[in-house]
Structure formats: structure tokens, C-alpha cells
Amino acid sequence: MSDTPILQIENLSTYYGAVQALRSVSLTVQPGEICAVLGANGSGKTTLLRTISGLQPAAPGSRILVNGEDITGAPAESMVRRGLAHVPEGGGVIVDLTVEENLRLGGLWRADRRDRAQALDEVYELFPPLVERRNQPAASLSGGERQMVAIGRALMARPAVLLLDEPSLGLAPLITQQIMRLLHDLRDRTGLTVVLVEQNAASALSITDHGFVLSQGAVVARGSSAELLADDRMRHAYLGF
Amino acid sequence: MNQFISLTFEGIANGAIYAALGLSLVIIYQATRVVNFAQPALALMAVYLAYTVTQATGSYWLGFATAMASGTLLGVVTERLLVRPVQDKSPLNAIILTLGLLMVLQGLAGMIWGNLQHSFPPPMSFRDLAAVPISPEEIFALAAVGVVATVLFLLYRFTPLGLRMRAAAFHAESARLSGVRVGLMLTLGWGIASAIGALAGMLAVPPLLSPTVLDAVFVYGIAAAVLGGLDNPFGALAGGLVLGVGLSYVSGYVGSELTTLAALAILIAVLSLRPAGLFSRATVRKV
Hints:
heterodimer; A: alpha/beta; Rossmann fold; four-stranded antiparallel beta sheet; 10 strands; 25% strand; globular; B: two-stranded antiparallel sheet; transmembrane helix (chain B); ABC_transp_permease (chain B); ABC transporter permease (chain B); transmembrane (chain B)
């Protein structure tokens, strides 16, 4: 059983109207891995995450398994219960709520009140700048703090898999670096699995174990991060550095 | 002076009713971006059912409970069966739909209970005490709306359910990704809003009930909600009270035939000075 992938995607396709956004994507992620999903703008990275978490319907014949359980077609609101937490593009922080309300929202689905409080403490420990802002409206946060709230809210659910959509979007390189390091530490400490969608391939590959490159909705390359970094042709064609 | 005090109290009591109706509109507008024009008709049906129960049992309070329960249920059914299917379309679809529902329900009420006025007296017998410038009905209206507004505030601000409902209203996608059943929360919001509308109806109707009795009150309710800023519950409460007191002065000192005109004048004045409403939050909603 130990080699059951935590996330297994088979033959995943999806359409926006008549336009096919994903073309038979298959990929496997093992527990505790950090994997990067790379590719240019419009290559289907965000769509991939949105389809995995049920925000976008998967076409017939697609299969999505989390820890061996088939979740294809399950509603988005059931995903946290299945161990999947999704930080959408831009973070999805609710600006009308306070920082703490945003965080608490992430853990609300769990019955264990004491563990919810514990999880909140852990998130504050992970992101100390949020402590003194806990009762402020999230609208008042900087971009980096917002991303902390977004990731913190996802962690409140104590997920097995964290789907992270472009956490570097709009952030200074230094803050991006901090977030990447934090994800890496988190994985090492808790065994969290992370699927990281990034446009910034260099910064993503610096912390990931392996990666997938999407182009026009299909996987065009896969391999360890070191292999992807070493492949000049790949770097020029798809990763842009 | 005595007239001033009694006009003020009367204005506050009426204002509480406008505030309640305004609040019911704001709750739905916040959650679904729909101005529920069917609100007075939903309230009307609830009040007619209450009237029927009160007639049959002789108990005002059984009727009151009926109004609350049927109000909630009507809101839930309206959301599930009528509004939900057009939710993803242009907001105009849902608005037209609520307008249609308003006419259908008013017609239905006329068909079932007749278009003549029924006497539906308030729970308290009217005691005309010259020394006390406020009537028992006014106290009842103010207390009822005060209690409901307080309970609602506590529910939304301090309970997990309230947090879920706010999250669903503000940002449906983030709420879903946090495991919130957004559809259920919207239905619940409609139920609560519609119950508050029914309460406003019960307070506004006495002593005479007819199918169009709530029309004027509803106009003031919308005015209250718009005055306060359509997405701000506190604004609706304040807007209702301001409007109630203002109209009471106009009616008492200038002439009761001018109240509707005055409501319109207040609305135009506020909207030209602060287009988003008196208390609307300055932040632009980013989705």
C-alpha cells in the first residue's frame, strides 16, 4: 500500500465550451513530494488545478484519484474532506472578512474544535506577521501577507495535498523566495504533498522534486527538477529562461 | 413639544419596520446580487396565513409563529425553485423573476382571501394614554426589530454558521474550497431574509389587511436599503430609522399627503451626494 500515489490523474481532459483546455493529462504524485506544474500563460496550469478540485468539470473518461479514492466529479466543497486543499490563483482571500476569520474558515469543516484551535496556533507560528493583524480586515493586507493568509487558510484544513496556484504572482522576488523555502520546510516537517503551479519556473524548480511542463493543455515534458533545469531546449521552448 | 416627541417615537417605530424590510433586501442582495422585489408578496402571503390561523384559533401569537415559519419556508422555496435555476445568468433574469412572482402572489392572495380589507388588529389593545407619547404597538415593533437585528448580528458575526454564510456571500469560490456548501448557505440566507420580511409585514399590516397593503411600506423598505448602501446591513437599519423619523416629521408638520414625495426627495438627495448610499463601504469588491 505504501506506493499508492497520493494524487493520480489519468487521461484528464476538460473543455471551456468548444475549446479543449486540457488534453489527456496523466500524472502521478507520491506522498511527500513537491511537484511543479510549469508552462507558459494559457498552457492549462490553472485549469489543471481547477479541474482536480472540482471547480471545472472533467470530461468523460478522465479519472482523478486521491490516495486511491476516485474523486472525479465530486463537488468542490467536498475536496477539503478528501484531503485536498486548493489555493486558487490570486489566493482567494476574502477581503470583507478579517484575517482570523479567513483562517478559521479553512478549518470549519472539521468537527474537532480543539484541533482547530491548535491548527490556528500553528498557522500563526508559521506566519508571525499575521498575529498582530488577526482582527484587521484582509483588505488591508499587503500582497505577501495576503498570500500568507491564503496558504494559512488551506493549511487550517490539515490537507494531505496542497494545490498552490502561482503563489509568486505579484510578489517581490524576496517574498517569493521566503514562501518557497517555507513550503519546503513544511514538507520536510509534516510530509505535506505540494502541487505547485508556477510561471516562474526557476524559482519553482529550486524547491521541487520533479515537474511537469504543460503546453496547450498537454504534458510535453516531465522529469526531476534537475533534469528539467539541465535541458536547454526545454528551458528555451517552454520555461523562458 | 409633546407633538415632537410623539412624532419622533412614531417615526422610530415605523422606521424599525422599514429597517426590517430593508435588512431583508440587503441580506439577499449581499448573497446573490438580486434585489428581491417579491419580498412584499412573500411577506403578504405569510401575513395572510397568520391571519387565517389567528381567525381559526383566536390566538395572535399562533398567527405570529405561522407568519415566521411560512415566511422562512417561502423564502427557501423561492430560492431553490425559482432563483437558483437563473443564478448563473444575468442578474436581470432573477430580478424580473422576482417582479413576476410579486404579481403572481398578490393576485393569488386576492383570489384566496379576496381583495377586500380584512381587520387584523395588533396584539395589544390600544390604550390612549395622553401621558405616554408612545403606543404599545410602537414599543412592540421597536423591540421585535431590535431583537431580530441583534440576534442576526450575533449569528453572522460570532458563530461558525454565520462565518460560512458571510464567506458564501462574499466569495463563493473561496467558500467552496474551504468546504462550505454555498448553495445551502444561500438558501438559508433567503429563508432568514424572508422571515424578517414576514416580521415587517406583521408589524406593518395592522389594523387592515389587503393584497396591496404592503406596497407603500415596501417602497420605504427599498428606500431604507438604498439609503444605507445596498450591501450594508447596518446601513439598512440606520437608513430605515432616518427615513421613518424624517417622514414622520413631514407627515406631522407639513402634511401627510407629502410623505411619499418626501421619501423620494430624501432618496434623491442622498443618492446625488453619496451614490453608493450613506454607509456603503468605500472598498471596491474584487472578485
